[in-house]
Known about the structure:
Elements lengths: L1 E2 L1 H12 L6 E2 L8 E2 L6 H22 L4 E2 L1
Antiparallel strand pairs: 1-4, 2-3
Helix pairs in contact: 1-2
Amino acid sequence: MAxxxxxxxxxxxxVLLSPGLLCQIPGKGRMVEFANMQTSxxxxxxHTIIFFGLITIFLIAIGVHIYTG
Length: 69
């Protein structure tokens, strides 16, 4: 049996938290911009911290597991 929980959670969070795809925190002109398809170094840092925090919560604190087989 393979545990696909970490793979699925990481993939979904990576897609949702890609800077500039759905939202960008902080934006170029405002605090939050939506679907502007641009990014900056500060935005990458903020999204990385959010990604790390959420993946830690889902995988360590909650313990999400998806078994196949």
